Amino acid sequence: GEARVVNVSSAAGEIEPASGWAPAYAVSKAALNALTVKLALAGKPAKVSVNAACPGWVRTAMGGPDAPKAPEQAAEDLAWLALDAPASLSGVFVRDRTVVPW
Questions:
Q1: Is residue 18 over pLDDT 80?
Q2: pLDDT tens across 62-99, in order?
């Protein structure tokens, strides 16, 4: 099969709608999303798909105990992109198996 890269991003990296929450974190995730697009273009000749996924608000040390998603649920998109998504899907930002703008 083809090689796949899955970046763990965040809705914080979305440019629209913009928010003032955690500027450094948000900018780093926007940069990761941009890197995803650039690496997808660079990897296309070698059949390497590169995508980013937003796992959502997850019950972790960062998300806290009130977050609605269990870590196992958050991993679903990541595993899907790594194993089962169409190989032609590349250079996109995904949340709940849906491509979303960032």
A1: no
A2: 999 999 999 999 999 999 999 999 999 999 999 999 99
28: left (phi over 0), alpha (psi -120 to 50) or beta: alpha
C-beta neighbour count of 62 within 10 angstroms = 9
Position 51, amino acid = N
Please give the positions annotated as active site: 25
What is residue 1's predicted lDDT score, i.e. its pLDDT? 58
CA distance 87 to 66: 35
Specify the residue for token string 């040390």: 61
Residue 30's nearest CA partner among 7, 13, 51 is 13
Interatomic CA distance for residues 95 and 48, integer angstroms: 20
Helix, strand and coil in the chain, % to nearest 5:
40, 20, 40
pLDDT digits (tens, 9 = 90+) for 46-63: 999 999 999 999 999 999
